[in-house]
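Customer escalation, tier 2.

The customer says the design service returned an amino acid string that "doesn't look like it belongs to this structure." They asked us to rerun it and document both sides in this ticket. The original structure tokens are below, unchanged.
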């Protein structure tokens, strides 16, 4: 099997997991990832497309790293434009009652010079990182990490974390990204829940 075929299969596998767990359409419109996004939290815990991480192990911003999934992704001139890493909760306050969804947990921007120097964690904090804090008796929440790329820099974050400052439920990241011409290039997620269920 060629490396490009293997990479395409990996990209499609990630896409299928995101679809199965309703990251599409709850958070983003369907897309084929150009990169696999690795997020490593304190104590070495990693987000791994739907694993469960204890809330106390994700209270500090993760270190992020990437590797190319699709042919020519690594050959593109990614030094142009700006990178944005975000974390959002589409299950706030619960998956069955998403009236605060999405809840914005983090927006970090990177200058073009930051890529591909990885892993990266530091950048301009547009919205300061807030670790998972799901309410009691609300089950597992999906915490979705997305890497966006676009031409604009110096963007402002939402004026509220709940609903990303927008009207309605299950709104937020998609609308913010579209407003600023940003495209998702990678996504990952993990589950976390309150210990009182």
């Amino acid at each position: 099997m060629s490396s490009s075929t293997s990479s395409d299969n990996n990209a499609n596998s990630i896409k299928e997991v995101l679809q199965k767990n309703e990251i599409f359409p709850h958070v983003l419109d369907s897309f084929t990832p150009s990169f696999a996004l690795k997020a490593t939290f304190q104590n070495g815990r990693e987000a791994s497309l739907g694993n469960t991480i204890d809330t106390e192990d994700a209270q500090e911003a993760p270190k992020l790293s990437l590797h190319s999934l699709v042919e020519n992704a690594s050959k593109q001139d990614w030094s142009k434009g700006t990178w944005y890493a975000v974390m959002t909760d589409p299950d706030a306050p619960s998956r069955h009652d998403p009236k605060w969804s999405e809840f914005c947990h983090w927006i970090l921007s990177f200058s073009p010079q930051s890529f591909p120097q990885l892993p990266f964690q530091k950048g301009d904090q547009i919205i300061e990182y807030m670790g998972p804090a799901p309410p009691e008796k609300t089950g597992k929440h999906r915490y979705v990490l997305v890497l966006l790329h676009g031409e604009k820099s110096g963007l402002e974050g939402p004026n509220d974390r709940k609903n990303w400052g927008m009207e309605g439920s299950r709104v937020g990241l998609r609308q913010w990204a579209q407003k600023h011409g940003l495209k998702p290039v990678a996504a990952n997620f993990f589950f976390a829940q309150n210990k009182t269920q």
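Tier 2 assessment: The sequence is consistent with the input. The mean pLDDT is 88. Helices lie at 3-20, 23-26, 173-179. Sent an explanation to the customer and offered a walkthrough call.
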